[in-house]
Amino acid sequence: MNNHSPLDITLTDRKDCVTITEWVYEVLRNAVMCGQILPGRSLTIRELAGALNVSPMPIREALKKLSTERALEVRENRRILVPKMTAMKFNELCDARIVLESHAAARALPYINDDILEELKTLDSEIDNARNMKNVEATIQNNQAFHRQLYSANPHQVSLPLIESLWLQLGPFLRLANSQLKEHYIIDRHQEALQAIKNKDALSLQLAIAADIREGVAFAGTLELLHQFIAEPYIY
Amino acid sequence: MNNHSPLDITLTDRKDCVTITEWVYEVLRNAVMCGQILPGRSLTIRELAGALNVSPMPIREALKKLSTERALEVRENRRILVPKMTAMKFNELCDARIVLESHAAARALPYINDDILEELKTLDSEIDNARNMKNVEATIQNNQAFHRQLYSANPHQVSLPLIESLWLQLGPFLRLANSQLKEHYIIDRHQEALQAIKNKDALSLQLAIAADIREGVAFAGTLELLHQFIAEPYIY
DNA sequence: TCAAACCTTTTGTGATCACAAAAGGTTTGA
DNA sequence: TCAAACCTTTTGTGATCACAAAAGGTTTGA
Question: Which nucleotides of D are covered by protein (CB under 7 A)?
């Protein structure tokens, strides 16, 4: 049974400035995102408290937060688990990302100055480096940083938390699918996006971001991968 | 000082089937949405525990949930308060609503059968009734129910939680602004939306929903109201 | 008069415990 | 053999307490 497989969660070390709850949140969020907790695996407060060597209290708060952000699912009987993916839900999440993120990009455009543009270029070359080193995790992290940097140029940003929730829901599945790929052909549309920013061309920027997302998740949309990972086949 | 004004929160009675935390969440959510807690007012766990006559524990969990949903804001010093509105943020929230909700409507369209259409018509006439009775609260509630019913026709719905977060952020301000109006001229675009649904016309549906939202919040966008309620002037 | 120093009160965080309900075994009985 | 009845263990919820840090007064001293 799935639920008795041992938990293997990466523990980072906690800085004194963050509360235990915040540290637990980061650790669990990372574990979900990196597929360390398989969908369908149910999580209990006491088991996690033991695994992270903290009292049940911070675990409780972190689990509640992740549930509110839809990274975890709370069942009717109050069990908490990593939600399973379905092909239709995958589709909905990708389309919601495209709509929200291209909107957020267009809304950020008027606020992008030369400093921010430089930072975006730096992040883009770091993505290329990570990709050349075949470092999948760093590629994903830097790619998220690029998008986050772009949207948060807008000082009145309200969409980013919603976008992060979508990333959190797609994350585990994308990484599981990614880990099955022998080759990573993925190229991005960041050059087009940067050009559109230079030209202050909102429509081109939206199209570049939409294409970037669509092509970035397309690899996971192949029938074989969907069948391999979706719904039931997660059982150990 | 704002923070010493007495709390006046409507207490509903709690059904045995819901946990205390869930009840507290509903009560506080409603209080925020109805403007019973003014923006800038800071909330403490012990004060609310006293006011709702429960232990601090359920208050803590409910406050955390509302903060994660952006209904409340957590400051650097860990104080929790109802966030203040700014003209720019108001604008961003409305535009995010338009983008997300017209998308959600179009995505729900293929799943709307005759039963759901009938329910939408019923809700629309209930909105008209409430409006004729000059019952502002019932009008808002039924209007939200209409939108929620429409979007959740899609069984793979992922946008609704994001949309509800936006409602939660706009809610207090819209109601405060509404309470200042002598006359409510507001008409909605629900008839157009219903017609578009009958015709299975996704684009018309999107346009109707977009117009419905834009016109529904326009009353609050007048300069006088913005100046009256935005940023600082909430002090008692 | 007024800021610095000090002290008291209030605060959120985290630990611990009790308890009812759910989950999960085991025994029973035909 | 197998489902019903029973019992044990595990679970999330909610209450309570301790404590360090923050907030908010008050006193001091020039």
Answer: 10-17, 22-24
Of B99, B154, B161, the CB nearest to A70: B161
d(CA B215, CA B194): 17
pLDDT in single tens digits along all 236 residues of chain A = 356 677 788 888 888 778 999 999 999 999 998 888 888 888 999 999 999 999 999 999 999 999 999 999 999 889 999 998 888 888 999 999 999 999 999 999 999 999 999 999 999 999 999 988 888 888 889 999 999 999 999 999 999 999 999 999 998 888 877 777 666 666 789 999 999 999 999 999 999 999 999 988 776 666 555 665 555 433 33
Cross-chain Cβ contact A100/B95 below 8 Å: no
Distance CA B197, CA B150 (A): 10
Please name which of B4, B56, B65, B77 lies closest in space to residue B32, comparing C-alpha atoms.
B65
Nearest residue to C12 via alpha carbon and C1': B78
Quote the DSSP letter at residue B36.
S
DSSP state of B234: T
Contact call for residues B153 and B116 (beta carbons, < 8 A): yes
Please measure the distance between the N-terminal and C-terminal CA atoms of chain B and give it in whole angstroms. Answer: 7
Q: Do B65 and A69 touch (CB under 8 A)?
A: no
Nucleic strand D within 7 A of Cβ A80 = yes
Q: Give the ipTM of the model, two decimals please.
A: 0.89
Structural domains present in chain B: 2-81 (1.10.10.10), 87-226 (1.20.120.530)
Cα separations (Å) of A43 from A14, A84, B173? 22, 14, 38
Burial of A161 (0-12, 13-18, 19+ CB in 10 A): middle
Nucleotides of C under 7 A from a protein CB: 10-17, 22-24
Nearest to B100 among A86, A100, A156 (CB): A100
